[in-house]
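Example with several molecule types.
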Amino acid sequence: QVQLVESGGGLVKPGGSLRLSCAASGFTFSDYYMSWIRQAPGKGLEWVSYISSSGSTIYYADSVKGRFTISRDNAKNSLYLQMNSLRAEDTAVYYCARVHWGNWFDPWGQGTLVTVSS
Amino acid sequence: SYVLTQPPSVSVAPGQTARITCGGNNIGSKSVHWYQQKPGQAPVLVVYDDSDRPSGIPERFSGSNSGNTATLTISRVEAGDEADYYCQVWDSSSDPRGVVFGGGTKLTVL
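Resulting C-alpha cells for the full complex:
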C-alpha cells in the first residue's frame, strides 16, 4: 500500500538547522509531485513547499523562502526538507504528502515534530 | 495572497446534516479539496475537485462549489465524523503561487 514515513524531527536551538526525510513506498515515486505541510501545536495546516516529479519546479511559502530547501532523490524514493536559520515559529509537526495532478494531497505521512527552543 | 475563510466551529446532532463552508474570492473558479483530521492523526482527503470522493470515503461526504463559497456536506452525521475539517485550493493568481488552506472548522457531534 502507499506509505509515506517522515523522520528527522527533534529539538533544535533557534538559528540551528535540521534535515527532514520522507521515505515513500507502494507507488512510483518519480511520477509524482511531492509537498511538505506543517501544523503548529493547536493550529491549522500551513503549506511549506512543493517539488515537481523531476525536481525542476519548486515553490515555497513566503514564511520559509530563503531558509528552507526542498529536494528529492528519485533513486531512493525519498523527499527531503533542509531547514536552516530555524525560528521558534517553525515549531510544528511536519507532514510530507503526495501531490495529485489537481494539486490535492493524498496520502499524508504520520508527521515528524520539530521543536525550536533554547 | 488568496484567503480562505472557514467558520471555527460547527455543531450538529447525530443523524443530521452538517454543512461546512469555505469562503474565498471567486472560489467557484478554483478546484477545492477537503481534508478531515482527527486528534493526533494526519489529515485525510475526503473530497477533491469540489465534489469527487476518494475510494473508501463514505457517500455521506459530498462537496459543492459556486460563486464565493465552497461547501462540504456530511449527511447522516455519526459520532466518528467529529474532527477538524480543512478546505484547500491551489492559487495560481498570486505571487508567489502556491497552496492555500482554510483555517479549519471543528465539527462537534452533539
